[in-house]
């Protein structure tokens, strides 16, 4: 029996060679499809946050400094519908320094005034941050607060928890960078948190949703420096939780944070 022989310039290949080539090509496509499916299904989720770069937005409300700097805005005169928007500074810094300079401008406690701020919005999953892009000049207007009660929010206890998640910096995670989690983002996240941006604990649920907790010390103090070694890595945190509007506040003892292996 003679072996089939094929020269590339011939118009038609022998049957055995043609069947082999077709089967080989089909197999390659099947393998490529399987590999593509595996890689896409096993790929870590990249957050879908938004950073409105280059677009400044004004909002009016009352600045509160605790548990973290934020502005409380309301959508109705009674204050029944509102939102707590975390304030951060331009770059990799927290907002406290700029707000202290705003207090010098108003000549008193900033929380005693209804203010209008201008900045860059960052948002994801119903949570919003405002970057003070112009630092202290982000303060556009201020007037004496006439009805403080409508801006008050009750901080309700939500019990104690012990959870597994990841400590992130909210500025990058909620929209200014993608991806903004896990070890590839560790150095950037560490700089943001070291600069005063409040650390946030992200806990994924079985439904592939996320719960977010602002991290504070057991007595409400900032513990940015203490959590740096655990940033962008899996960690177990346990402590008491308070609900502040849409945000949860997690009060932890940093010495009891456990890194996951």
Written description of the protein model:
It is a single chain. By secondary structure, the protein is an alpha+beta fold. The protein folds into two domains: 50-151, Beta Barrel (OB fold (Dihydrolipoamide Acetyltransferase, E2P)), CATH 2.40.50; 155-259, OB fold (Dihydrolipoamide Acetyltransferase, E2P). Helices cover 23% and strands 35% of the residues. The chain has a five-stranded mixed β-barrel. A five-stranded mixed β-barrel has the order 8-9-10-12-11. The radius of gyration is 26 Å and the shape is elongated. The protein starts with 14 loop residues before the first helix and ends with a strand.
Separation, N- and C-terminal Cα atoms: 63 Å
Report the CATH topology name of the largest domain. OB fold (Dihydrolipoamide Acetyltransferase, E2P)
What is the share of helical residues? Answer: 10-25%
Output the strand order for the largest sheet.
2-3-4-6-5
Main beta sheet: strand number and arrangement?
5 strands, mixed, barrel
Structural class: alpha+beta
Number of H/I helices? 5
- Summed over residues and divided by their number, the pLDDT gives a mean of 87
Helix/strand order, N-terminal first: HEEEEHEEEEHHEEHEEE
Tell me the number of structural domains: 2
Morphology: elongated
Can you name the CATH architecture of the largest domain? Beta Barrel
Which oligomerization state do the chains in this entry correspond to?
A: single chain
Name of the level-1 CATH class of the largest domain: Mainly Beta
């Amino acid at each position: 029996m003679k072996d089939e022989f094929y020269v590339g310039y011939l118009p038609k290949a022998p049957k055995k060679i043609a069947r082999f080539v077709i089967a080989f090509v089909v197999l390659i496509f099947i393998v490529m499809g399987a590999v593509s499916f595996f890689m896409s299904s096993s790929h870590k989720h990249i957050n879908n946050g938004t950073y409105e770069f280059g677009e400044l937005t004004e909002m009016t409300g009352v600045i509160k400094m605790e548990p973290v700097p934020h502005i409380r805005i309301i959508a109705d005169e009674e204050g029944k519908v509102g939102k707590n928007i975390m304030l951060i500074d331009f770059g990799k810094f927290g907002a406290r320094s700029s707000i202290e300079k705003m207090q010098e401008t108003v000549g008193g406690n900033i929380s005693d005034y209804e203010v209008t701020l201008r900045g860059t919005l960052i948002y994801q999953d119903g949570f919003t941050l405002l970057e003070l892009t112009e630092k202290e000049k982000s303060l556009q207007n201020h007037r004496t607060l006439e009805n403080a009660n409508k801006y008050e929010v009750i901080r309700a206890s939500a019990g104690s928890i012990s959870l597994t998640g990841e400590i992130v910096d909210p500025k990058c995670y909620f929209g200014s960078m993608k991806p903004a989690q896990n070890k590839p983002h560790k150095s950037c996240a560490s700089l943001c948190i070291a600069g005063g941006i409040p650390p946030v604990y992200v806990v994924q649920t079985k439904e592939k949703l996320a719960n977010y907790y602002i991290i504070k010390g057991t007595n409400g103090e900032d513990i940015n420096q203490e959590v740096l070694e655990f940033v962008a890595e899996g960690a177990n945190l346990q402590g008491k939780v308070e609900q502040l509007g849409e945000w949860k506040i997690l009060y932890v003892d940093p010495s009891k944070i456990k890194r996951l292996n």
